[in-house]
Queue: 4 jobs
Job 1
Amino acid sequence: MELQDIIRPENKVYAAPELLDQVHMHYCPGCSHGVIHKLVAEVIAELGITERAVGVSPVGCAVFAYNYIDCDWIEAAHGRAPAVATAASRLWPENVVFTYQGDGDMSAIGTAETIHAANRGENIVMIFVNNAIYGMTGGQMAPTTLLGQKTATSPYGRRVDLNGYPLEITNLLKELDGTCYVTRQSVHTPANVRKTKAALKKAFQNAMEKKGTSVVEVVSTCNSGWKMSPEKANEWMAQHMFEKYPLGDLKLS
Amino acid sequence: MAKIKGAVTVNKERCKGCNLCVVACPTDTLSLQPLEVNDRGYHFAYMSNPDACIGCCSCALVCPDACIEVYRVKLD
Amino acid sequence: MEEVRLMKGNEAIAHAAIRYGCDGYFGYPITPQSEVLETLEALMPWDTTGMVVLQAESEVAAINMVYGGAATGKAVMTSSSSPGVSLKQEGISYIAASSLPALILNVMRGGPGLGTIQPSQADYFQAVKGGGHGDYHLIVLAPSTVQEMADFVGLGFDLAFKYCNPAMILADGIVGQMMEKVVLPEQRPRRTDAEIREQCPWAVTGREGRRKRNVVTSLELESDKMEVINHKLQEKYREIEANETRWEEIGTEDADWLIVSFGSVARISTKAKELAEEEGLKVGVLRPITLWPFPSEAIRKAADGKKGILVVELNAGQMVEDVRLAVHDALPVKHFGRMGGIIPSPSEIVNALKGMVND
């Protein structure tokens, strides 16, 4: 069978999601953000909430998420996305509001907003992209940076005596009565991509059903910040990150 | 048993040559262009071994730039 | 219908917000303005008008809730006092940069730092000169009575929506805590979601009925585009200056001396004017109602033919700088102020004026 007989519209089994703009994304080659964006776009469309979805983008590499996913967006100050989402959700309860945040946004500068929005049980989805480093500002240490991990501000590796321990904010959020679903996923293999999509779908459904706050952590790579090839970054993540941030559901209710 | 035959298309201008699709492909269908680059200077992915493709979508699932489309037919 | 009540300025803010049809209030307790949040919680407007009231985890969170709510086209507000308003500056800059309507109340207390809980006007610079980062302006209204506290909620929201710009009510602990008679406005219905979609086509309401997405952001990495955004903001500020400058004059026409004061202090200055006249001094009082835009032209006109201007404030001399800029050294301008929560008596002001007369 010739290629042109296979590559026909009726045989298409996978295409970029319609809700993802067909534009060049600013992310580095191999960045996990692109995969997660794709999944968010697919889930919103599949749940039929394109006209009700409101995203809140962070400060960090994903600040421009609003340039790619075709729903309404508010760009928040660094760390304040959960507060912004709180108001957007409470004032338009029929809308489905989600935040998209990195580790600095979620677990350093925005820890208070994160914990309190989750503790109030706001009907929102928090998507937490944990790549253990500050990508946009050039690879500085994050709260989630592993012990021994080298970054621009821990050039000899993170040390407990200097920098304290990596913060597992998702584990903290699991303990709060306001969260209804807390899970940790990754997108480094096709199987993991499928699992993350299912997790995102469940989280958005929870928000639609007003069950409280859902948290989807995606353990991710920042190959530029880690100074590795995308492939090596995935291997390094599987070897080192999953030990500290094991994948799976932390809370199901 | 029905045989599956697949094929992919790569939007070569959006591809950043990250190689993750090449790694994810279970049948070694894909490679990065060894010499040719796109307008941004990336060695984009292409089907170097199209006969091997089974249309499993692994490449497309892990592609961060959503530049792969997958086609699949069942051959009786 | 309108209703006459006796209440504190802070309580009047809460009643007026509900009656205006405000959609959401987000605040954090701090003296001397906690009655705003307390009154709203006691009135339970979510059961009547559907207004959202939320005690946030911090002033930072509260102002970012206001940012989020304003981005969706709703009429939202917050209130705080000086140290809390410092925390809000980040969000205020974002709201201004994004050209969003919102209302912020500052019931000023003495600073700097944790300072005192007593009245002050030491946040004038912060309110009218920016406060947060970047080139922006708030529309700043200075109430001197409990009635104005109530009235400026509606005026503040109306101006905020007219110009898509945050408005601030810059009050002080006196008007916040003082009880006076107040005529509360009629209850207005909150705007419906359909009305908001129609009136605020820029708002993040969900894409319903629109093909193109709405994005509220203050980020623009391309400098030439960022400069265009800044020029547009500046054009808007010039328009506000031309249209919305407000002030009150009391006996300025045939006076020899002028007192310029804002807020509660203008009332003390008005009493001082009466006392000074008993001693043969002819004094007028000019009270800026909008601190930004500042009534420079009105002050320039009122100063014409006067012997001098005394600017009385509860601070070390802040608005006096704008008065001096307004009159370009055409006549002597002096400042009299008390700080740290001390309120001057009318006779102190008269003495300060006499000192100026004798110079």
Job 2
Amino acid sequence: MAVAARKTKAPAQSKAAAKTATKTGSAKTGADKGASKALSNMPTFDKAEELHAYREMLLIRRFEEKAGQMYGMGLIGGFCHLYIGQEAVVIGMQMASKDGDQVITGYRDHGHMLACGMESRGVMAELTGRQGGYSRGKGGSMHMFSREKNFYGGHGIVGAQVSLGTGLGFANWYRNDGRVSFAYFGDGAANQGQVYESFNMAQLWKLPVVYVIENNRYAMGTSVSRASAQTDFSRRGLSFGIPGEQVDGMDVRAVRAAAERAIEHARSGQGPYILEMQTYRYRGHSMSDPAKYRSKDEVQRMREEHDPIEQVRGRLTRDFKVSEDELKAIDAKVREIVNDAAEFATHDPEPDVSELWTDITLETARA
Amino acid sequence: MPIDILMPALSPTMEQGKLSKWLKAEGDTVKAGDIIAEIETDKATMEVEAVDEGILAKILIADGTENVAVNTPIGVIAAEGEDVSAASKPAAAKPAEKPVEPETKAEPAPVASAPPSVPAQAKSYDASSEFPAGAEVATMTVREALRDAMAEEMRRDGDVFVMGEEVAEYQGAYKVTQGLLQEFGAKRVIDTPITEHGFAGIGVGAALTGLKPIVEFMTFNFAMQAIDQIINSAAKTLYMSGGQMGCPIVFRGPNGAAARVGAQHSHDYAAWYSNVPGLKVVMPYSASDAKGLLKSAIRDPNPVIFLENEILYGRTFEVPKSDDFLVPIGKAKIVRPGTDVTIVSFGIGMTYALGAAEALAKEGIEAEVIDLRTIRPMDIETVIASVQKTNRCVAVEEGFPQSGVTAEIGMRIMEAAFDYLDAPVARVTGKDVPMPYAANLEKLALPNIGEVVAAAKAVCYR
């Protein structure tokens, strides 16, 4: 049924808006404001913002396509979960973030790292298990971090990042430093028990956390309706009094607008906020997933009618009169970055064998 | 028929307590449920309710009496006009509440006896060799030593905080965090809901940013709910991040068997956590080690599993009065020198090891007793050096035998000192069964001094 609601753009939009307006309790103020804003006029981007979103999303798309190719060539091992189709979520969120805000997510994490400003070379080299990878080849696709960019992983255990992300919010509250933590997880992780333990404590202690549920409709091969008694994930915090909204996660403008409301709520000391990003992954759960649980038509329809990058591209050419040549130039630049990353990740050496025995524990400081 | 009021137990491990106050006087009328007295231990305070109605005919134990053994008659309730002269002799008193062994109820002296399964404190224990020179020494319980360790480190470093169930307003389920809320406030002494998985994850997340949480589990049995965060997040993230993301966190709480709490509250997890690279695992026996090691654990940049023991909480030891007294993690200690056999143990296992050493000495066998103190990283060198001298070893733990810590000790000795052994390494462990509830079965399930003595004699061929 979620699929039916997605057939045209308009119903999906109004559905999101209507949900926003029906929030209860402490959700009222912030969410209502958002609802009226969303209803009266769809949040717009200026040309620079559209171009930024286009370039950033395209980088993730091309990077992930390349990763898929390299996996096929045997250069990337293990599991590899591609973010293609979901790019608007993390880019819209980052466009609303401030320096110092932290990001943590699950194993579909390449897009989040690029969005946090981590280098394509370092991410790709980690995928290939080389010394130049962000974890020096010891983490792999699912386990990458950057303290410098406030990216806290990259976690392979479904749902663990929700408690950890709440802990990042706890640290912000403890230090009172005005930072907000963004804890991303999927519709599958949303059924884990520790998610609700975390919701409870985050609201109890008013921790600055934004929970971003990337509902791509399938937890591996199980559709939302087959796994979830409550398929409206924005309501999952209701019993704790955590406000939530459903957001068109294929429209980067809607994502940023919702993110601004959520982040403002969290940063101002009102506690956590839930954003259900209605999105879609075009590829299988991982590289080895033939995706037999959904039809080719369904995927095709999403790509043609809701693609997050095509939406921006359309507005750039139509509304901002950006020429095809300009867009091609951006595309070329992005391909150059990705090709360079792939080149680097292919030829960078594997970690030195001595790395096997490093980073297990830190040296104890002399007291 | 007069009814005795007996000194109640507040917990499965309580042996004695203080009768702090009578709220009724002799001759007062009481109804069932009336609060008639207050008792306290170092752990908690509780009110004593009248179990029947009548007149508080006799007070047998006065206000303020310390060390009143559980089940000692403390007063007598009689019906109107009933003669209580007979009841005033405690030895003749009959139990009113629970069935107890006749010799126990006939024992009127306010003297504590150790619970049957765990030996009393060994007399030979002396920790002072590691104390800072010239430091004043105080006598304190393990419980107080742990509290002082946390308080001192929290004074020293604002990034240190403690979180867990009942750590703040309740003052700690086992009173280990007593007084911390008053000194450090609710932001640094945080009561959590009963959600081990969630708050362990929150603690780890906070630690990844550089804060230094002390996460208390009411018991490590409950940490099973949180073990994913402890192992997959806390222990592995440093490695998986290529050294970027350290996790300076302490998980602490009572571990292993207490007394009569059954299989789900009696598990010893030393072997489990010691199996995981990225963790440090500490299991102290004495109060000075508890304090010095907990301070080291809090300052350590790695996740540390700090395994305490409920029965040891109330034991007293000498502890140096010094904020700078640290016991290094990863260092074993020879607590009793000897020449004939090495007995190595840790945590509450030391009670069996030390008790056995005393018994063996009477038979002319001088055991060298080693307290491992840290399970991971294991100071096997100290054990090996001892075995090279004694040529015999008995390893003792309360945990299960298969893949246990003693199994590891035995293997490591074989790898490093096979040629020095005059007998195969022996081990004494908890039995390979879930912990039973019945007192007699529980006693059988745990190690005892006799088993350690027998094992030591066996490796000495005596």
Job 3
Amino acid sequence: MDLIQILVNGLSVGAVYGLFALGYTLVFSVLGVINFAHGAVFTLGAYFTYLLIGGAVGANGLLAGFALPFALPFWGALPLAGLGAALVALLVERVAFRPLRRRRADPLLALITSLGAGVILVNLIQLLVGAESYAIPTGALGGLPASFPLLGARVRTVQALLLAISLLLLAVLSLWLEGSRNGRGLQAVAEDAETAQLLGIDSTAMVRLAFGLSGFLAGVAGGLVGLSVSIAGPYFGIGYGLKGLAVLVLGGLGSVPGAVLGGLIVGLAEACVPAEASGWKDAVGYGFLFLVLLVRPRGLLGRPLPTKV
Amino acid sequence: MIPGRLHRAGTGLLALALLLAGCGGDGGKQPINLAGGVPVGAVLALTGNANVYGQDQKIGLELALKQRNGVGGINGRPLKLALEDSGSDEPGANAAFTLQINNGMLALIGPTLSQQAFSADPIAQRRGVPVVAPSNTATGIPEIGSFISRVSAQSSVIAPLAIEAALKLQPGLKRAAVFYAQDDAYSTAETTIFQQTLKGRGLDPVTVQRTQLNDQDFQNQISAALREQPDLIVLSLQAVDGGNLIRQLRELGYRGLIVAGNGMNTPNIYPICQKYCDGVLIGQAYSPELDTPANNAFLKAFRAAKGGATPPQLTAQAYTALQVVAEALVRLDKRLPLAGANLVEARKALMAEILSGSYATPLGEIRFTPEGEVIQSQFYVARVRMDPGGRSGRFALLK
């Protein structure tokens, strides 16, 4: 396949993986656990976007036929959907993580409570809006063409936007983490929560901030993916959740640049799979992860674990 | 200590034995439980990625149930339908089949997907429970066993019709690209038929692209296929992945003909590929235009329930499946009264009754081979026509 086409295909998918994995990373960096409800928050972001642009609920579910009394343009709906997802992520933190943290429970227990929160959210979606597929209308991008040529390749406009927005968000987040007081506070808590607390940083607030940001990123990613493909029911986020986990591990647990790099690498690895073996692209992505972990168990940009003496 | 341990072990074994006995379910001399009506079970994919089919099928079953009970049920006793959601995977179908069988159903309708049928039907076969499949089109479904039948004509009958229709519309077609989901029994069975038909017409596929059921992004496969400059694209995919693929194909500039298989034979593709669904050719086992008393009654009931809409094939087939079971039960009850009858024997006799009958259904007159394969004479090809807004459309039959 042409190099440009591979790059375009791989980077656009990889950017979504990166955005998704970044949500995992933010929470992991401050709490040391993976938030398994992240995929459900991503799914909610897609549904929120669909509803905010005026989409109606189908014939199944408790909200059958429901539609908001207004319809926003896609560019207005997307950030609002991100905010809605952020609120849900904060709720997940309040219900599934904070009680355990207060009791100083083993962080591993939060894996189970977050998994439970994810299952509840997915089933709640199904209860409210049914299990059918929804799609954001193809005209949601206004007068933009469906695709355009680029150096001999053909690029779907939505994929280009997906790549651009994902990279923009990643850049803004990186700058914010390095250049703002709260960003540095978040990093300090990620380094050592107790020391950060002694230095006057409110670690509880930082944890909430991490969940809120993680939820916002997941919500925006969900809305963008929902625009690119359809929302294939309440379980829409599961595949991305699994891929996001692989990206998280590949990039290095807790590493922001690692999440981005891992996402892009997995996306490109999948795009490089020859056409005759295209059904095996998932296997290639996970196989690549396996090989990297064999030679670098902490992932590409993960920090080595401190040695206890 | 030792007697205590023995006691606990004995209690445990007794509990296990009781559990196993409970799981056995059928009980050799168990009578049919007719409280509330004559029990028939249905197992449909109401959640997961195949829910788009299950929702269509559920309407068909509900209409058939209403119709049957409106004309006296099973010789004066109401027909009772127990519906179970199988999800869209094999474990879900296995669990739902087992539950329905243990609950004493006389026959089962389902499951939705061929992939599920290959897993769940053997359970019904082992337990001696008749199965009438409303939508399994893969090769080899009735061959699973003597208790398995279907009202959905297999791919080898319908799939070639859409290729022929494409060639009739554009006789100069030369370069066909094929897509199919390699992890789905229906898709792999149907693509074999499609590819054989293409080769038979001198249209060797220029590329065969494999996908997976849960794929949503097909840019890699589409880019590879489009480089071969196809003028015909043939899809054996389910509704959600197929709808997404069509949308991405069109967005990436493909303007040629598209033939889709039975998996996309549902109006539920409209919201997925939207305006890009327009023009897709799909073989049909059902025509709303069939002017028979059975189809007219079905059409009337569907339109009354759905605000004048036209029923899709899956709804008509599900309606037919329950109609077949109900009519066979009526005949069986006259010959071998169900009240007090032994469940195991009644299930066996019901299967024989299903296979021996002839049925005037919305699909036309149908019968079964001794193996349980449907014998149906009328098939069609439809072209999807979307409304200008791309929100809704219709399957317009080609003349």
Job 4
Amino acid sequence: MLNPISLAFKKAKKENRAALLTYTVAGDSSKKQSLDILNSISKNADILELGVPHNTPVADGSQIQTSAYRAIKNGIRMNDIFKIVKDFKKSNKNKPIILMGYFNMIFQYGENKFLNKCNSSGVNGLIVVDLPWPENKDFAKKCKKKSIYFIQLLSPTTTIKRLKKIIRDSHPMNYFISMLSTTGGKLKVSPKDILKNYTKIKKIDPKKDIVIGFGITEKTIGKLKSADGLVVGSAICKEISKSLRHRQNPVTNVSRLVKKLKNKIL
Amino acid sequence: MKIKKRIPLIDQGDKLGFWGGKFGGNYVPETLKKPIEDLEILFNKLKNDKKFIAERDKYFKNWVGAPTRFIKLKNLTNHIGGAQIWSKVVSDANGGAHKIYNATVHCLLAKRSGKKFIIGDTGAGYAGKMLSMAAKKFGLKCKIFMGAKDILRQQPNVKAMKKNGAEVIPVYSGSQTLVDAVSECMRFWVANCDTTAMCVGSTVGPAIFVRICGWSTSQISRELKVQLIDEFGSIPKKLKLYNCVGGGSSSFGFWNEFMDYDKKQCEFIGVEAGGPTKSNKHAAPLTYGSKIGILHGAAQYVNQDLDGQIEETESISAGLDYPGISPLHCFLKDTKRARYTAASDEDALSAFKTVTKFEKLRPSLEPCHAFSVAIKEAKKLTKDTIVVVNSCGDAYKDREILKKRLGKKYVEPN
């Protein structure tokens, strides 16, 4: 059976649109609430990235850091995160879930044990921010054996020679970082230039799905809609923080935001 | 796992930057792969370039002030009544600590690569102060990331950084100390690596930063080797080198030139920060058996919980207050070339009292950890044993802490 991630891209392409990927931090602001958010946004999002919070993140901006610290403070543990995925999958069997985080969490859990747990709870893909190519070769192979996509990150600083090597070794989905920035930075490159880079990468192997992420908001998402997929993370984390500050319900506010995002790329 | 002879330890990592196959490496976001590779190419070329070495040596001699003194602590030796206690007074260096070597080399590299901005992290404030000095000297714009808690407790160094024209950026995330400052500095580099050079303040971080820092601070042992031969005619038969270990830059530099000697002749003793006696928190991952984990781009022994969240540390010395430790020291520990132990906050304060009572030397709280263990062990050693303690920082920055903990009479009037 095809990985649900690839099915989601297929479905979006059939509808002639980009796939919408959301990112929320597991356990933000509580275990229950983050599950409620996933359940509620899954109507409009095609693929759900679930962040594994870490307390020394080297690539996350302030919005995601705030969410991660909040989740850790509220006691989220690795096994809780697998439980959230498992519970989510009970009612959303085919909605793809990607865990995104830092390698130390996998390293401490044990690579094999981690992947087995991913399988039994229903994780379909992994993004490991600080495990670049070629360091990730062995782990990516292990993922493949378990039918889990290991998603390679590509950056504007990645040379063309390196891009080719990474994409040759990559699984069916890759992630292009729009600009030099931590997550949630202000988009400092024009969407046109981002798409130019995207096209360059896409040409290397047109069969592989490539999503664009970092700095994408309600304002900018529409201009990038020709990509295979678009990831919105910090803007959602910010919405959760804002809701909590104003004593509003994050679940309804985030759902509303995701619906708006979806409408922009239709 | 084995150390090779006649090859600098910094060059003993494998292709992917791992020492002993498991310490170090490059656990970095994709965006940093290219700037790190560029820096590797530049450094590998320049470290063997005679002109570059001559340039480095010129600045070390005329600007940093090489060599720093190597002195016998006669009164302390007489008081203790065991081994001879000597000190390498690295705090003589311009700015008052060993951090100047790494800062100078990073600025020289930044100039060569055409970068106009340089950023750095700091705990005790020394790495930041020295980087701000070097940046000013070499005409680079400078930003220093520092934990908000450290800014409060190390004010003299904060003032110095600002005076040198650096922008000091307070970091409020996490424990608001060095670990968070390094994270924030790396994040800034992720977003600005096209225009900005990064200086990691110790022998930590992705492998290239470990290597550059170790190469720079090795100046300390190069000087010491000459000074020992001048003083004793040859390297003493029983030599013990004591150094505090936080990230591990001063200790590595203090030991490097003696790496190939048998440890029976030349023993290395690293002293980590044990924290307050009554606290469970410490900054001593090697002493207290922490597990290997990944922090700031490198695999190392690090204080962490079962999930892999990095744990907060507690130490009176901001410069040692770091949950991880250089991959080089993990390698030295596992190959048993160096021995590691810890001293508590109280031990360090007591050592400060003893040293300042007998000698005209005012080591900062970081080297006081090393003095504490050296004094205890020297008692039991014979008179022909040469104990050398690296006094790698000056106590001026600690005046507020010393005043609070020991009273006014321990703070000099300046």
